[in-house]
Design a protein that fits this description.
Blueprint (H helix, E strand, L loop, with lengths): L1 H37 L6 H23 L14 H36 L11 H29 L12 H22 L1
Helix pairs in contact: 1-2, 2-4, 3-4
Length: about 190
């Protein structure tokens, strides 16, 4: 059970985003097949795909928060030793946490008014609060991820922890994907 929870803690956003992406792909594939092969257009496919995309967009905010993949210029803080760098990160994380804590009540109010309105989607008829819950879930996950990173960086500043929080940049993430792809291609070349 502990391994499952640890795995979910490390990969929750990725798992959910993969499921949503697969769902969008399958739904739009069915729509294309229905429209061009069967000659029938589905009224619900575009709406459902749009809602899945909204959820994936909001979940990506939490993923970027967890991996610290955001637009930033960190050349200044890189000149400091690890503890000094962590101190600047603590300040940044506190400001980010305050921002998301500011947004959470508004997202909750937005969701509450949607629930009270009883609004449903036009084509599918699902309650719109399922879609409108995305900001609240995302901002709450961001708050949790920021607290996790904040604790690690405070421990580094206090000298109680040596490891840096998992952190990357967009370029590092792209390079990881490229390197993984090269490894897969090398393994296929060895097999063939």
């Amino acid at each position: 059970m502990k391994k499952v929870l640890l795995y979910l803690e490390r990969n929750l956003e990725e798992i959910l985003m993969i499921i949503l992406l697969i769902g969008m792909t399958v739904i739009m594939g069915i729509q294309v097949f229905s429209r061009y092969i069967l000659g029938v257009s589905l009224s619900w496919s575009e709406e459902l795909t749009r809602y899945l995309f909204i959820w994936s967009a909001f979940l990506s905010v939490s993923l970027c928060t967890r991996k610290c993949i955001s637009i930033k210029i960190d050349q200044f803080i890189k000149i400091f030793p690890k503890r000094g760098e962590a101190a600047f990160k603590v300040l940044n994380l506190v400001i980010s946490l305050l921002f998301f804590l500011y947004l959470i009540p508004y997202a909750a109010y937005y969701l509450k008014t949607t629930i009270a309105s009883g609004q449903v989607s036009p084509a599918i008829g699902i309650p719109m609060y399922w879609v409108q819950a995305a900001p609240l879930v995302s901002f709450s996950l961001c708050g949790i991820r920021l607290i996790q990173r904040l604790v690690i960086n405070i421990r580094i500043v206090l000298g109680k922890e040596q490891r840096l929080a998992e952190e990357g940049s967009l370029a590092d993430s792209v390079m990881e994907v490229v390197e993984d792809e090269r490894k897969i291609q090398d393994e296929k070349g060895k097999e063939g």
